[in-house]
Amino acid sequence: MKTTRLTQMRTLAAIVLTVSIPPMTLSGATISGTSHDLSAMTNSAGQICVTCHTPHNAQAAQLVPLWNHAATAATFTLYSSSTLKAVPGQPSNQSKACLSCHDGTVALDSFGGKTPAGGGLMTGEDKLGTDLSDDHPVSFTYDAALATANGGLVTPASAASVDSAKVVPLFGGKLECASCHNPHDNTNTHFLRKANAGSALCLTCHNK
Ligand code: HEC
Ligand code: HEC
Ligand code: HEC
Ligand code: HEC
After folding, report:
1. Which residues are registered as beta bridge partners of 94?
2. Which of 40, 148, 170, 206 has its CA 20 to 30 A from that of 48?
3. How many domains does the chain have?
């Protein structure tokens, strides 16, 4: 049967990708079947990357490389506290990309300049909304000066990564959603860059 053969082929492709590519490498095999696999949406034409990236005619606002999804235009309420030393700004591109689905204001299938085909807005617990005051701060510079001012932070290895192993990235020195999350890999659940057992993710940055 056609569908069975297709499934077999996809399974085979997944196996080949899994064995031939090291786990840190980006591959469709790790997005496939996760909640970031929106290939079933009617205007995705069975493709996985297309909801977020395109090889050609990308969005003028290049939130992240070759970005293909309509961007959120929301103004966000930011995290603040009396002890925070960092100065979070309105979400910068790397975080705005995530919020272009996760703030619940842009249709999931609004990509490629296409008219949404009825994919709807995000709802439920994965929707952060436009109020980020109850979320870990993002979109601020995390450098040696901040680590010193705070007193309880690891000094980042570079402007590209907190740790020298480059598991937890920074984007132009800034902490963004994608510092903690890898939208392409759900191995650690919740698309986390690092499993958070024993709060290992938190302890990559916080000396507590
Ligand atoms: C749900 C949205 C989403 C999907 C689906 C997605 N990406 Fe991404 N991608 C992002 C975001 C956001 C970034 C920027 C953050 C980062 O670098 O991890 C990114 C960054 C990238 C980068 C540059 C940084 C890097 O990791 O090398 C490449 C290359 C890339 N994606 C390729 C792909 C390919 C290929 C697919 C399909 C197999 C895909 N992406 C599917 C959201 C997505
Ligand atoms: C194209 C839309 C889109 C973009 C862009 C996107 N997501 Fe998602 N994300 C989704 C959808 C859809 C779900 C599943 C929602 C649901 O099940 O209700 C999801 C789920 C998640 C989950 C929960 C997964 C789980 O298993 O608990 C996390 C974490 C997440 N996304 C993080 C991110 C981050 C971080 C970015 C940016 C780097 C991002 N997403 C970009 C559409 C998107
Ligand atoms: C400092 C690390 C960190 C940052 C930054 C971060 N997250 Fe998360 N996020 C987590 C962790 C850890 C979890 C898993 C929480 C759990 O296990 O309950 C999570 C869970 C989620 C979930 C699943 C639903 C939920 O509320 O548990 C979504 C969706 C999500 N994050 C999206 C985002 C988006 C979008 C951003 C940027 C605006 C972001 N995250 C920034 C660490 C982070
Ligand atoms: C990528 C690095 C990184 C990761 C991972 C991370 N944090 Fe943070 N966190 C920071 C930085 C930097 C600040 C800003 C501290 C400041 O401004 O003094 C911060 C701020 C906070 C604050 C607010 C502090 C205040 O004074 O208002 C709390 C609470 C916090 N983080 C808890 C966590 C928890 C819990 C985790 C794990 C789920 C986590 N963080 C993961 C880097 C990180």
Report:
1. none
2. 170
3. 1
Return the best residue to mutate from 67, 98, 136 for the ligand 2 pocket (most ligand atoms within 8 A of CB).
98
- Mutate which of 142, 158, 181, 205 for ligand 4? The one with the most ligand atoms within 8 Å of its CB, which is 205
pTM for the structure as a whole: 0.92
For the chain, the straight-line distance linking the first and the last C-alpha, in angstroms and rounded, comes to 57
Q: Whose CA is nearest to atom 36 of ligand 3?
A: 177
Give the tens place of pLDDT for each residue, 146-174: 999 999 999 999 999 999 999 999 999 99
Residues spanned by the domain of 63? 25-208
Q: How does pLDDT run across 61-105, given as a tens digit for each residue?
A: 889 999 999 999 999 999 999 999 999 999 999 999 999 999 999
Ligand 3 center from residue 177 Cα (angstroms):
7
Which two structure tokens, joined as six digits, stand for 93? 């591109």
194 in any annotated domain: yes
In a domain, 82, yes or no: yes
Tell me if 149 is assigned to some domain.
yes
Exposure string of 171-204, with b = 16+ CB inside 10 Å and e = fewer, is beebbbbbbbbbbbbbebeebbbbebeeeebeeb
Confidence grade of residue 8 (pLDDT, cut at 50, 70, 90): very low
